[in-house]
Amino acid sequence: MVTLRNKLSPQEIQQFAILLREYRLGTPVQEYCTELLRLYGDRRKFLLLGMRPFIPDQDIGYFETFLESIGIREGGILTDSFGRIKRSMSNTSASAVRSYDSWSLRSESESFNRIITDITHDIEALARDEEEEEEEEEDNYL
User: Fold this and answer.
1) Would 72 disulfide with which of 28, 67, 114, 117, CB 3.0-4.6 Å?
2) Which CATH class is domain 2-141?
3) What is the pLDDT of residues 92-119, one digit of tens each?
4) Predicted TM-score (pTM) above 0.85
5) Domain spans of the chain?
6) What is the sign of the dihedral through the CA atoms of 43, 75, 3 and 64?
7) How far apart are CA 55 and CA 66, in angstroms?
């Protein structure tokens, strides 16, 4: 939250909240990733790493591939000496690391939804706070 508030403008925080809500309501992960990258821009694309814990298991494979395709991997941006992206983990090992039984998947899904709801509310509150501060600053100049 603090990172987003420091790196995004109030309008961008609102846009982030909208994207997050749309993703939670069923927007495909491909569209969500593309729109987040467009919002963050190339200069702030490292912020995508912070989304990893909030991506459900069924979408994590695409998310990891997307990060690698734009030059990001866990621990930061990494390319080889020719500017190519180095792969950090095979699809097989990634799926093995993320294997869960049906009970933990359901439990994790419920937990994910609860966390996303909390984050969405926090972001919306931050955006409102920023707007109120800007209005107060404008009033002080008058």
Assistant:
1) 67
2) mainly alpha
3) 444 444 444 444 455 666 776 677 777 7
4) no
5) 2-141
6) positive
7) 12
